[in-house]
């Protein structure tokens, strides 16, 4: 099978590194790989599938002859470079929030709405991490019983704030254990040995931007513009892996046994529900 000419924009960050890890694990067919980042990381060497790749500074011309571009950078950088990639006929899969709510850009979770990818015009958006976690199990339950309302509490690891967030947790943990004073930088308050119910900035309605992403993105992905959503996002002092607790209200009765049955055959889900063994 012939491979693709693929670029990763933001290849040295936490998300970009994870993208490369998944590509390698799944043996995604790549004919030519290009790793792009900001000027400070240009020249770094990254090992992928046993080969060394030199990171290049991202420029508009970097996307020449690239079929697929994976974007793992912030909104401003994506807004600058994504149009340049599309202009050069590269299909962009964007992990930032820059294009998620653009009505002309499909917002896709493969286990939930894979057919929406067909309507792209050069850009396919990925949803927020907490939204992705929620909609994968919600989809089979909605298909059976019809969702009316969801109440979500998220417990989000510091990896959601990138490499800097991971570093701050490490530094603060060492400082506190050594009896030293800390100075929060990435997070608004101390994150080590603490919980912060403040992810992203607060909006005028009292919800954070992160919490509003859950509402807006879930509605778009599930095709439910009137879905009622209330979400509380909490940053927790762990390095990786977010968790969520979701309470749902459905149009149709949905007994727990039926929910387990539906989830047991849904893509992307593994049920771990045996309290007797805990």
Written overview of the protein:
This protein is an alpha/beta fold and 278 residues long. Helices cover 29% and strands 22% of the residues. It has six helices and eleven strands. The protein has helices at residues 14-25, 75-87, 129-145, 162-177, 209-222, 256-264; strands at residues 4-9, 30-37, 45-48, 51-54, 56-57, 68-71, 91-94, 123-125, 147-156, 228-235, 243-250.
Give me a quick take on this structure.
With about 280 residues, this protein is of the alpha/beta class.
What structural class do you assign from the helix and strand content?
alpha/beta
Rg, alpha carbons? 20 Å
What's the total number of strands? 11
Largest sheet: 6 strands, parallel
Q: Strand content of the residues, in percent? A: 15-25%
User: How far apart are the first and last residues' alpha carbons, in Å?
Assistant: 45 Å
What keywords describe this structure?
single chain, 278 residues, alpha/beta, three-stranded mixed beta sheet, 6 helices, 11 strands
Task: Note the topology.
Blueprint: E1 4-9, H1 14-25, E2 30-37, E3 45-48, E4 51-54, E5 56-57, E6 68-71, H2 75-87, E7 91-94, E8 123-125, H3 129-145, E9 147-156, H4 162-177, H5 209-222, E10 228-235, E11 243-250, H6 256-264
Parallel strand pairs: 1-2, 1-6, 2-5, 6-7, 7-8, 9-10
Antiparallel strand pairs: 3-4, 9-11
Helix pairs in contact: 3-5
């Amino acid at each position: 099978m012939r491979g693709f000419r693929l670029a990763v924009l933001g290849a040295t960050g936490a998300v970009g590194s994870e993208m490369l890890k998944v590509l390698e694990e799944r043996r995604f067919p790549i004919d030519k790989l290009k790793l792009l980042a900001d000027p400070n990381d240009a020249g770094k060497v990254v090992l992928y599938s046993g080969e060394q790749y030199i990171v290049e500074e991202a420029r508009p011309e970097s996307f020449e002859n690239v079929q697929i571009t994976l974007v793992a950078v912030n909104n401003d950088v994506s807004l600058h470079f994504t149009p340049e990639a599309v202009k050069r006929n590269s299909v962009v899969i964007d992990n930032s929030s820059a294009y998620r709510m653009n009505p002309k850009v499909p917002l896709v979770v493969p286990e939930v709405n894979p057919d929406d990818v067909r309507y792209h015009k050069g850009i396919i958006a990925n949803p927020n991490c907490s939204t992705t976690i929620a909609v994968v199990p919600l989809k089979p339950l909605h298909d059976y019983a019809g969702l009316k309302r969801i109440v979500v509490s998220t417990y989000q690891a510091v990896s959601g704030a990138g490499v800097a967030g991971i570093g701050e947790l490490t530094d603060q943990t060492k400082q506190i254990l050594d009896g030293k004073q800390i100075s929060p930088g990435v997070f608004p308050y101390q994150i080590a040995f603490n919980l912060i119910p403040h992810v992203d900035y607060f909006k005028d309605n009292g919800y954070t931007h992160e919490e509003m992403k859950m509402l807006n993105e879930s509605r778009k992905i599930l095709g439910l513009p009137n879905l009622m959503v209330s979400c509380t996002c909490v940053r927790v002092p762990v390095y990786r892996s977010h968790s969520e607790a979701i309470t749902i209200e459905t149009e149709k009765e949905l007994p727990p046994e039926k929910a387990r049955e539906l989830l047991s055959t849904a893509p992307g889900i593994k049920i771990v529900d045996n309290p007797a063994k805990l």
